[in-house]
């Protein structure tokens, strides 16, 4: 896994979009990205994502910026823009992987809300559709990252967590990392 | 692909949860489920999902019910409950596929919001975590369905659509299905 997969969220209406933007950030974190760049009016979402990172571990960075277009245009690496109008993910994922994580080339993944300016389509090396159907930018991002990393992101270990969820057939088990080492140290 | 993968959404607060519940339904539709069951106070989300199905095609059914617990308990088939406390998706997906789509056994996929009652953990044949990290029920559902169907859901063809999005390297192209036959009939 590379150190440099960054998810950029374009567009945010405070209040109305708080949960979607938070979910974009938490999905980026959980599924292997290194950083999320949010619009600077999404401070509430940034706070929630940082709080989760403090509790459940990192490294994962959250950045607020007001120059999403320039940032994308000037990205030194590969740009993938997720859009239902783009090429089919199953058709481009191998090339996209070769141009990014497989060659240590930094990847910027642009996730729009509604009404993404044409600039982003033009700045993108790949416009990618996770289906050409309208659904959810969060769902699209999730499938995209799982395919980009070929599932390896699910094996990630987290640093600096103050709690760890242990997978259970039924019920909930949350331990602190110290207990985990004592319990599962022999694995 | 089986005819019988149903996504059940537990819990909905009108207003606050409208977009998340809509996205659960649209993700279920786009990624290969046959039907979504929503709480009966989620009429607004149901309407949006039906409207998308009318325009972009089906078949896909939306049902409103008020008996989510009994419906899950009495499901005649396999029940998978998505939860960050569950077993790792990468560990259980092969068994789960064998017990559902691969053996024509109907599958109910339970997607909670916050505070899912313990009944659902007990009624589930599989409690499944798409990571054991907090992120998004929409993201979890998306990765789950893509893995369940092993990507075949992306090849689905839609019936009764009044518009079709054609994948593009750059830009947007939407045609009506009649035009599509004339343009791409030779493929």
From TrEMBL, chains A, B:
EC number(s) stated in the UniProt entry for this protein: 2.1.1.206
Catalytic activity: cytidine(56) in tRNA + S-adenosyl-L-methionine = 2'-O-methylcytidine(56) in tRNA + S-adenosyl-L-homocysteine + H(+)
GO cellular component terms given for this protein: cytoplasm
Record key words, sorted: Cytoplasm, Methyltransferase, S-adenosyl-L-methionine, Transferase, tRNA processing
Function: Specifically catalyzes the AdoMet-dependent 2'-O-ribose methylation of cytidine at position 56 in tRNAs.
Quaternary state and interactors: Homodimer.
Protein name per UniProt: tRNA (cytidine(56)-2'-O)-methyltransferase
Taxonomic source organism: Halobaculum lipolyticum
């Amino acid at each position: 896994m590379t150190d440099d997969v960054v998810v950029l969220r374009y567009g945010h209406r405070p209040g109305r979009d708080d949960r979607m933007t938070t979910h974009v950030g938490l999905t980026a974190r959980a599924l292997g990205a290194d950083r999320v760049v949010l619009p600077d009016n999404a401070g509430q979402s940034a706070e929630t994502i940082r709080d989760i990172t403090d509790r459940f571990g990192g490294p994962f960075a959250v950045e607020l910026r007001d120059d999403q277009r320039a940032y994308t245009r000037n990205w030194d690496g590969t740009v993938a823009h997720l859009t239902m109008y783009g090429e089919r993910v199953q058709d481009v994922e191998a090339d996209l992987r070769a141009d990014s994580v497989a060659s240590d080339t930094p990847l910027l993944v642009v996730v729009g809300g509604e009404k993404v300016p044409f600039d982003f389509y033009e700045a993108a090396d790949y416009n990618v559709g996770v289906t050409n159907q309208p659904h959810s930018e969060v769902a699209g991002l999730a499938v995209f990252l799982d395919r980009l990393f070929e599932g390896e992101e699910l094996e990630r270990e987290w640093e600096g967590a103050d709690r760890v969820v242990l997978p259970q057939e039924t019920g909930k088990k949350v331990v602190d990392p110290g207990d985990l080492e004592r319990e599962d140290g022999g694995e």
